[in-house]
Amino acid sequence: MILMPIMYAVFYLIMGSREEFAENRIMGWLYILIPLIVIQTLFMLFGNGQTPGYRNYGIKVVDANSFEKPSLASLILRNFGMILSLGYHFRMAFNVL
Q1: pLDDT digits (tens, 9 = 90+) for 12-22
Q2: Which CA distances in Å does 79 have to 20, 42, 74, 94?
Q3: How far apart are CA 70 and CA 48, in angstroms?
Q4: What is the C-alpha separation between 5 and 14, in angstroms, rounded?
Q5: CA gap 49, 27 in Å, rounded
Q6: Overall pTM surpassing 0.85 (yes/no)
Q7: 97: pLDDT confidence band, cut at 50, 70 and 90?
Q8: Which of 13, 43, 59, 63 is positioned for an S-S bond with 54, CB 3.0–4.6 A?
Q9: Which domain holds residue 74?
Q10: Helix axes 72-94, 25-46, angle to 10 degrees
Q11: pLDDT value of position 96
């Protein structure tokens, strides 16, 4: 729910076209992933540990020890880890780079 509007804005408003994105993939993905991490972290921090998609399915991110809302540092680390994990699996699955 959060990723698609960011991708649309990057493709057409920031970079001008999908072709321009294809020519500058690294910058394009940075333009997509940095706002995604910030927005997800803010939603989880101020939205009771839930993004809109998590709320839709009744899922909540909690601290493993206290079962309370996670700290800002753990949310940022979680979101960076998720992005790195997705990048690694994408690279392995499609033999990219």
Answers
A1: 999 999 899 88
A2: 27, 11, 9, 22
A3: 9
A4: 12
A5: 29
A6: no
A7: low
A8: 59
A9: 3-94
A10: 140
A11: 60
> What is the Cα–Cα distance from 47 to 55, expressed in whole angstroms?
9
Exposure of 21 by Cβ count < 10 A (0-12 exposed, 13-18 middle, 19+ buried)? buried
Q: How many domains does the chain have?
A: 1
Q: What is the pLDDT of residues 62-74, one digit of tens each?
A: 888 898 888 889 8
What the block records as the tokens of 18 is 């999908």
Q: How far apart are the first and last CA of the chain?
A: 28
Evaluate whether 12 touches 33 at the Cβ level (below 8 Å): no
Residue 9 structure tokens: 């804005």
Give 17's DSSP letter.
S
